[in-house]
């Protein structure tokens, strides 16, 4: 014989289940997405970008002569070489040592751009001395420049600024007056 216990209200002693609550699977999926997928995607993207920047730096560090592309804005600011916008055949090369850092820059520009370039450095076209090459032969050989070609017309100047700013030696090939070629060597000492 089986007996069931009951309370005076007629209910049994077995505990009741709480009412059914529907599961919010979309909330769980959203949480997983926010906590796992987004940081993982960010890490993959960061690794890809980091790898690219390393290749660029390695390529620039392994250069042994002019690299025909614009120097970075930081390099142009550090070495005080304001290459005019619209210049063509822009090449640069940077050397660093304990004593000094040097940037070699070459570009072609219009006569008005040349005037603007010189004015930004604190000189003018009148400051260029015709027949003068201001870049020493040793420095010119570093990047393969030869200023002894017959029939070429050179003019140059050296821009000496404050002690905190680099010294910039400028030589301009005026053989083609409508498109002068500018050679600049900027040397800074820490």
Q: Would you mind describing this structure in some detail?
A:
The chain has 190 residues and is of the alpha+beta class. The protein has two domains: 37 residues; 126 residues, no CATH class. The chain is 32% helix and 21% strand. The chain has a six-stranded antiparallel sheet, with no helix packed on it. Strand 5 and strand 6 form a beta hairpin. The radius of gyration is 35 Å and the shape is rod-shaped.
Q: β content, as a range? A: 15-25%
DSSP summary: helix tally? 4
Secondary structure: helix percent: 25-40%
Low-confidence stretches: none
Strand tally is 6
Shape: rod-shaped
Mean pLDDT: 86
Helices and strands: which structural class?
alpha+beta
Distance between the termini: 103 Å
Keywords: Membrane, Transmembrane, Transmembrane helix
Protein name: Sugar kinase
Organism: Streptomyces mimosae
Features:
2 domains; 190 residues; six-stranded antiparallel beta sheet; 4 helices; transmembrane; rod-shaped; transmembrane helix; 21% strand; Sugar kinase; alpha+beta; membrane
Summarize it.
The protein folds into two domains: 26-62; 63-188, no CATH class. It has four helices and six strands. It has helices at 25-61, 73-78, 111-120, 137-143, and strands spanning 88-96, 101-108, 129-130, 154-159, 167-173, 181-188.
Give the SSE layout.
Elements: H1 25-61, H2 73-78, E1 88-96, E2 101-108, H3 111-120, E3 129-130, H4 137-143, E4 154-159, E5 167-173, E6 181-188
Antiparallel strand pairs: 1-2, 2-6, 3-4, 4-5, 5-6
């Amino acid at each position: 014989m089986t007996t069931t216990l009951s309370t005076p209200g007629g209910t049994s002693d077995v505990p009741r289940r709480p009412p059914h609550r529907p599961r919010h699977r979309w909330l769980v999926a959203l949480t997983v997405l926010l906590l796992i997928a987004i940081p993982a995607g960010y890490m993959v993207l960061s690794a890809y970008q980091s790898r690219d920047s390393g290749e660029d730096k390695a390529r620039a560090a392994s250069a042994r002569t002019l690299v025909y592309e614009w120097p970075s804005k930081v390099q142009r600011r550090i070495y005080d070489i304001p290459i005019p916008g619209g210049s063509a055949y822009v090449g640069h090369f940077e050397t660093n040592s304990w004593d000094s850092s040097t940037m070699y820059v070459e570009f072609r520009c219009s006569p008005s751009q040349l005037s603007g370039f010189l004015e930004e450095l604190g000189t003018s076209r009148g400051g260029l001395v015709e027949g003068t090459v201001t870049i020493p032969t040793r420095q010119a050989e570093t990047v393969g420049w030869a200023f002894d070609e017959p029939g070429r017309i050179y003019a140059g100047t050296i821009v000496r600024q404050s002690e905190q700013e680099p010294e910039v030696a400028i030589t301009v090939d005026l053989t083609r007056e409508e498109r002068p070629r500018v050679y600049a060597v900027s040397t800074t000492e820490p």
